[in-house]
From TrEMBL:
Belongs to the metallo-dependent hydrolases superfamily. HutI family. Residues 63-98, 122-391 form the Amidohydrolase domain. Keywords: Cytoplasm, Histidine metabolism, Hydrolase, Iron, Metal-binding, Zinc. Pathway: Amino-acid degradation; L-histidine degradation into L-glutamate; N-formimidoyl-L-glutamate from L-histidine: step 3/3. It is found in: Cytoplasm. 4-imidazolone-5-propanoate binds at R89, Y152, H185, Q253, S330. N-formimidoyl-L-glutamate binds at Y152, N327, G329. InterPro entries: Amidohydro_3 (IPR013108), HutI (IPR005920), Metal-dep_hydrolase_composite (IPR011059), Metal_Hydrolase (IPR032466). Binds 1 zinc or iron ion per subunit. Catalyzes the hydrolytic cleavage of the carbon-nitrogen bond in imidazolone-5-propanoate to yield N-formimidoyl-L-glutamate. It is the third step in the universal histidine degradation pathway. Its EC number is 3.5.2.7. This is Imidazolonepropionase. It is an enzyme of class 3 (hydrolase).
Amino acid sequence: MEPLDLLVRNTSEVLTVEGSHREPAEQALTPRPRACVGVRGGRVAWVGQEPDLPPGAVTPSTEILDAEGRMVGPGFVDPHTHLVFAGERSREFDLRNQGATYLEIAQAGGGIVSTVRATRAASEEELVRLALPRLQRLLEYGVTTAEVKSGYGLDVENELKMLRVVRRLASLSPVELVPTLLCAHAVPEEFKGRREAYVELCVQEILPAVAREGLARFCDIFVEQSAFTPDDARRLLTAAKALGLRPRLHGDQLTSGGGAELAAELGAATVDHLENVSEAGIRALAAADVTAVLVPTSTLFVRMRPYAPGRKLREAGVNIALGTNINPGSAMSENLPLAMGLGCLENGLSAAEVYWAATRGAALALGLPSHGRLAVGDVADLVIFSCTNYRHLPYHLGVNHARAVLKYGRLL
Ligand code: NIG
């Protein structure tokens, strides 16, 4: 065997996450007790027991990383973030804790449009400066790949500005970023009462400009009584598909609005939130193979009930991904392990299911077949945790157990 660049040895277990969401998650994680991981050229080159290392694999130039008897698994993939924004909304948090609702605050001029005002006023440099520490915190929690949405610009110039910020962040941080255009996040103030005209602006101007610059891989829309209608989603996401952007949508979050059924109809990659998904919606997601992205931190943060029915989605055969949804309004937290804990406590998932959802389930949702898994040939994005088994991660609620993070085999 050609010499390895790096060997991670002395683990408690290595989770390679090689299975599928259609088999029991404990089996899909493929835990290998005391296994080693060999890396060459930024990719996983070998996984096995140390005595079985092929001749020539370890040479004096191979770096050895001692996991000191701890667990190793693929880096987390966060499939849903609104990482780029200016300003903050701690006052809204305080108001909600005294009884105001997310919708009441939005209707009174707070909410998404207030972050739009602050983000429009900020320069590209300022937005990069503000987002970098958030990205660094995600990395510290073990996130090696993250999706990032626009959605606080809501006009041609500012949506482009946000996505250019994502591109600059990707060049400044080791975390791999997947950009999503979310121009249909809210109806901007200057289009008040003219929602359909704003959707036309998205279709005729924002989307083509973003596609021309190759700034986004996905196009997302917030389908909700207070935001956009299913017909708006059909119009925007059909146009997005024609320009090569894969559809996603925020659906069934605050009210039950057929978001899951719509995602299935439009062949969306994901539908995100799903707190109020219907039984028919769950069946539609399974049949159309749409990933359900659960973001329980925001259900907690906006004090809404119910949580998304993770157990039912899983039992129906739906692939589940789990994200932080870091944003200034509904989830001011980069803590993915906390989302995993809530995924168990409130979405009814098992520890193995939330680990799947935060790694392989999320990678598949983002169309990244070599991520979120440690099979030979996959990207060598991995985390050495300070615990010895994966059940400890959601159980030690919200605590960061990422001890060492490697991106493409490089220790960060
Ligand atoms: O995913 N639901 C819509 N968008 C965000 C909230 C954004 C905000 O409040 O600023 C979400 O929860």
